[in-house]
Amino acid sequence: MIDKLVYYFQFPFVIYAIIVGVLISLCSSLFGVTLVLRRFSFIGDGLSHVAFLGVAVAAVLNITDNMLIVMPVTVVCAVLVLCAGQNSKIKGDASMAVLSVGALAIGYLILNIFSPSANVSGDVCGTLFGSVSILTLKGYEVFLCVVVSAVVVLLFLMFYNRIFSVTFDEDFARATGVHAGVYNIVMAVVIAVIIVLGMKLVGSLLISALIIFPALSAMRLFNSYRSVTMFSAAFSVVCSITGIIAALLTGAPVGSAVVAADIVGFAVCAAGGAIAKRI
Amino acid sequence: MAQIICENLTLGYDGKTILSGLNLSIEKGDYLCIVGDNGSGKTTFMKTLLGLLTPVSGKIITCDGLESVQIGYLPQQTQIQRDFPASVYEIVLSGCLNKARGLFYSKDLRQRAYDNMRKVAIGELAKKSYRQLSGGQQQRVLLARALCAADKMLLLDEPASGLDPAAAQEMYSVISSLNKDSMTIIMITHDMAAVKKYATHVLHIGSDVFFGEKAEYISKYGIQGEGL
C-alpha cells in the first residue's frame, strides 16, 4: 500500500489534488463556523446549486474558462441572500430552498436542451459530485487556488474579531457603531468564492459538507470560539487528505470519499463530546 | 444638556405602525425607565433609538456629541446565543470592538474587558464557556460587554429578566452605580419596584403614552401603574 502511495505521489496531478484539497478544506472550515452558528448552514448548498447553473450556462455558451461566469453569478447571489435575506417576504430558509432547487432544475434543463457536448450526463455528474475534476487540475488552476486561498485566510485573520462580533450578535455590533453591513458583504463574497473553489474538490452537491462537518465536529469538543475555529480547520484538512488518499488507493470518487471521511470524523467527535460530558 | 431628542416620532417595523407622536428628550445622567405592556413597542423604541430600525416618521436628534461608538446595549438574549461556543472573555472583549483602532484589540482594551468583568463580578468566569453558564451569569456577561462599548449611554432591554430576585437586585445596583458616574441609562423593565427606586424619568408606552419625571408619573398613575 505504501509502495502504491509513493508511486502515486510521483505524479504532479496527485500533488496538485492534495494541495488544492488542503487549501479548499481550510478555507471552507474557517468560514463554516460562522455560517453554522448564524444558522446559515444551507447557504453553502444553495449557492453551490447556483454555481452549477453558472457551469451549465458557461458550457452552453462554449466558454472554456467557466470561472468567468460561475464566480460572478455566485458572488451576486451570495450577497443578495446573506444581506437581503432577513428582510425579504420569503423568509431565509425558504428563499434559499427556492433559489437552490430552481437553479439546479434550470441548469440541468439548459444543459440538456442546448449542450454541444455528447456526454451530458457525464458532465452533469462531474459537476455535481466533482468525480474527476480534482485529478485533472492544471498548473494555473492550482496557482489560482493558492492565491485565492491565501487571500481568504488573510481576510479571515484580519477580520477575525469583527467576524466573531457580527456572528455572536449582529444587532449589538450595529448598535454600537460597528459597520456590520460591510462585513456581511465581505463574508458573502468570500463564501461564494470558497464554494466555487470547493466545487472542484467535491462537486456542487457535496460542498456544504466541507462547510458544516468541521464546524459541527469542533463544537462538540470545544467551548471557545478560537479553539472551535482552530480545531475545525485542522479537522477539515486532515479529513480531506485522508479522503483523497483513500480515493486514490481504492479508485473511489474523490468528492464522496472526502465527505465520508468528514462523516467518520464527525461521529468520532460526537462520541468524544458525549463521553467528555459524562466525565 | 439633552443627549437625545425625539420629535414627533412614529415607530413601527415591516410597514406596521406601532406608536405615533412620541416627543421626549433625554439628558445626560438621566435614568429613564420604559414601561408598558408586552407588544406595546418598548423594544421597537429602543431599537429605533439605536438605529437598528428606521422611524416611520419624525426625527431622532442626537446632540452633546453623542455617537453610536459611545453607546452600550444589552439586548434580550437570542436563541442562537444560548448555545454559542465562546468563552466569557471573548464575548466581553467583543464589546470593545467599536473602540478598536486597528484590526486587533490593544492592551488597553483587553484591560477594559477585564475591568468590566470584575465590575459585574464575573472575573473568575473569564475562561468559562458562555453556553455552560446559568441565565443570570449569561446576563452579566452581556452587561459587561455592554459596559465595554459604553462611554456615555447604556441601553438595557429587560436586564433582570430570567434572574432570581437577589441577582436582579445586584444587577440593578451595578446599573445604579454606573448612573452615579454620570452614565445615562435607558432601561426597559416590568419591575415597578426598580422604577420607584432608581428612575429619574419614566416613559410609559401603551394605550396612553406618558413621558415625564418619576414623581409626576407616580402621582398620575400610582406606583402600581394602573393598567400596567
Major sheet strand order of chain B: 5-6-7-3-8-9
What share of residues are in beta strands of chain B? Answer: 25-35%
Number of domains of chain A: 1
Largest interface: A-B, 27 and 37 residues
**H/E order of the elements of chain B?**
EEEHEEHHHHEHEHEEH
- According to CATH, the fold-level topology of the largest domain in chain B is Rossmann fold
Basic shape of chain A: globular
Q: For the residues shown, what is the average pLDDT of chain A? A: 85
- CATH class category of chain A: Mainly Alpha
- Global Rg of chain B: 18 Å
Taken as a percent bin, the fraction of beta residues of chain A is: under 5%
Question: Strand tally of chain B, please?
Answer: 9
Structure characteristics:
A: 279 residues, B: 228 residues, alpha/beta, Rossmann fold, three-stranded antiparallel sheet, 8 helices, globular
Structure commentary:
The complex is a heterodimer of chains A (279) and B (228). Chain A is mostly helical and 279 residues long. Chain A has a single domain, classed as ABC transporter involved in vitamin B12 uptake, BtuC (Orthogonal Bundle), CATH 1.10.3470.10. Chain A contains 13 helices and no strands. In chain A, helix 2 runs antiparallel to helix 12, helix 3 packs parallel to helix 5 and helix 11 runs parallel beside helix 13. The mean pLDDT of chain A is 85. Chain B has 228 residues and is of the alpha/beta class. Classes of the chains: A mainly alpha (279), B alpha/beta (228). At the A-B interface, helix 8, helix 9 and helix 12 of A face strand 5, helix 3 and helix 5 of B.
